[in-house]
Amino acid sequence: MKLHSHIFVGFLIGFFLFSSAVWAGEYRVIEPSELKAMQANKDFFLLDVHIPEQVHIPGTDAFIDYRKIKENADKLPGDKKTKIVVYCRSGSMSHRAAYDLMELGYTHVYDLSGGMRAFNAIP
Q1: How many CB atoms lie within 10 A of CB 71?
Q2: pLDDT tens digits along 62-118
Q3: Which CATH superfamily is domain 26-121 in?
Q4: Domain spans of the chain?
Q5: Which terminus of the chain is less hemmed in, N or C, by CB atoms within 10 Å?
Q6: What is the CA radius of gyration of the chain?
Q7: Are 32 and 112 in contact (CB under 8 A)?
Q8: What is the pTM of this model?
Q9: Cα-flanking dihedrals φ and ψ of residue 14, to 5°?
Q10: Can you tell me the distance from the alpha carbon of 118 to that of 1, in angstroms, rounded to the nearest whole number?
Q11: Could you give phi then psi for residue 84, rounded to 5 degrees?
């Protein structure tokens, strides 16, 4: 049984080392209040990925179907260091889109917790 434990631990260490070598960026889930504060000094790209397309949060820079992020890379900022805040209606579609953005090499990806619903619920 000890051998299996060592193999598993070795696998985990290798996985984390490989993962950090592949993507050395920042992924964070942000709260709606944090996005509201960020909008005062907008230094990020705001991306709506909800389908079907919905009314957007003010300041949205682009709409891309969450399933088609990679196919629409030309609509994204050319600088991979650009902060990108991604959102959908409730948060599930944006989580998948955030992963695709990281795979494309974006190093500052922020996912809006609760999506547009949570954002609109803030006074």
Answers
A1: 11
A2: 999 999 999 999 999 999 999 999 999 998 899 999 999 999 999 999 999 999 999
A3: Rhodanese-like domain (3.40.250.10)
A4: 26-121
A5: C
A6: 17
A7: yes
A8: 0.80
A9: -60, -40
A10: 48
A11: -120, 125
